[in-house]
Amino acid sequence: MGAESGSVPRTPREHQRRWLQHRKQRETESRGDVSVGVAASFTAEPVEAQAGALLLDAGFTDPQIHFADYNQLHQVCLDPTAMLGEDVEVVVLLWRIEDVFEQPLARYLAGDDAAGTEILDGVAELASLVANLDSTSKATTCASTPPHPGGWGIDLRDVVTSLRVGRLHREAVSAWLDGLASAPFVEIVDLDALQRLAGESQVFDTQKWAMYRQPYRGDFWLELGAQIAEVVVRRTTPPPKCIVLDCDNTLWGGIVGEDGLGGLQLGDTFPGRAFQAFQHELQTLKSRGFMLALATKNSEAEVLDVFERHEGMVLTLADIATRQIHWQPKSESIRAIAAELNIGVDSLVFVDDSPFEIAEVSAAFPELRCLQVPEELAELPFLLSESGLFRRVRISGEDRQRTEMMQSEAKRRTQLKTMDRPQFLASLELRVIFSSVSDDHVTRVAQLTNKTNQFNVTTIRRDESQIRQLVQSPAHDVWAIQVSDRFGDYGIVGVAIVDHGADASTIDTFLMSCRVLGRGVETAFLTAIADDAVARGVTSLVGHYEATRKNGQVATFYADHGFEADSAFPGLFRLDLREGRPQTPAHITLAR
Amino acid sequence: MADPLLEIFAEGLGLSTDVLNEESSPDTVEEWDSLAAMNLVTLIEDSFDVSLSTRDIMKMRSIALARSVLKAKGVAGI
Description:
The complex is a heterodimer. By secondary structure, chain A is an alpha/beta fold. In chain A, strands 17-18-16-15-14-13-12-19 form an 8-stranded mixed sheet, with helices on both faces. Chain A has a 6-stranded parallel sheet with strand order 1-11-10-7-8-9, sandwiched between helices. A 5-stranded parallel sheet of chain A has the order 3-2-4-5-6, with helices on both faces. Chain B is 53% helix and 0% strand. Chain B contains 4 helices and no strands.
């Protein structure tokens, strides 16, 4: 791998070009060499090109990145392969309080404390679904932390708002991490930390949020894509176990054999400060279980003298697991250290200031990861963190050691949850209101017929005047459904147009917004249409399926609901209403 | 003669320039959905170094309309 410092970072735009280029060339039915599924509470598709290009850089030839429909986190946790494909190997869940809990958050901001409790219970419930996913799925689960809410309605310069939101956020993060405590293998993308790192006013894209529910600017998608790529790469890359260190101009400034103990730069003025900070960083990593070793060309007595006598040293000999101090090639030292610690060379990370030494060890061990001391010494204390090699993405034991009070609170929340799918659906308190479209709703209905691509059986587009004509036509019914659940009201999310003939009614249009899919709402809608047809004395209901590039998910919609495919006319389905009709799922309240 | 705006639409929609014309719009091009529209906005802003308001974006309901919005913003060679 050679020196990892010095690679030129590319811009989000360059990643996007590279990814589009790759996508153009790849075979359409390729299964790829890794499959990543993303479910997010916001429009997250811009992350595809960023993560994709970085995975190509990391040596994958055809990474596949799929997206679940928008805001389907709960459904993905319950049924990941249905939402993201059978082959999915990494499930990435990205969510924000202001999306998943949009309505209770608005109430909380308006002073309703009960809404805050509702949010925290919802967070704990989502965490339990993620923990359940992790324990039941073969895929690696990677979940984000909830970022501090921001944007519309949240003025962080207003202290009443900032303190109120801050408190909710802290409790939500605690509830989330407590909930994940039972799932030690869930990897974490700390979206909250990333958002703070970039700075809130720098990350939000207000226009794209307004128009597409896409909250972030390009640079932030690169940051997020890099985190996802890291999680994917880490699955197949051995974690480092030991950091092998050069001494002169790596642990301290200067050459001990020439400058003497008193001539070394290591203390509280620059550049000695930078070396000291680097040693602190090494000590931190040691405390997290990484071993430290020395591979250096010096006289052993002089190096030991620095460790024992130099007042600026942070590391002590007790911190060093093993050492190779001699004038033999460093590749020999690497071999000896790996043998002594009984680990592979691919579990070592080698740090040196000399490009020659790095080239020498890399030639002998291409699998060895090497870091070169940067020219700019102020950057030295960032060398290890910037490499990304030592980042932990799991919550470890000590992070979860919490006070008794917090644990009992966590337990109370746990009792609320651990639900299977029927229990979850029942807990949603889904309510579907079925009604005939009135003039007030013509605009929304026309909009839905024009922009719904996926759950749309015929994809017939109509403008407002066409909808109005159908509303007035005695031979037609234009139906709409409004859906709400305990998370909020989704408004009008489904439209159906029914053409009534003498003894058969034909469903000309049946579509649903992807916001409410996967909850049985479509069955309730179809039931209401069938019930209405029966009330009119109609004996047969007819449905059409017109395949498009995007509506594959409804190919079996009518067949799944008891319709018989017409053998003479492909795409035509009939339901004899005298023999049976769909039933509203038990977890849905259907109102007219 | 390659038209830069047409090239951008082709790239953003994943199509060849042959199947696009001035009248191409979300109503005539299936690939032109809201996700593609979002990508197109980014591509256009980056390529012509302009920033588009939501009002501008909502006017861009065809390639010809996108062209006139960009012309009005003083983009050269459009």
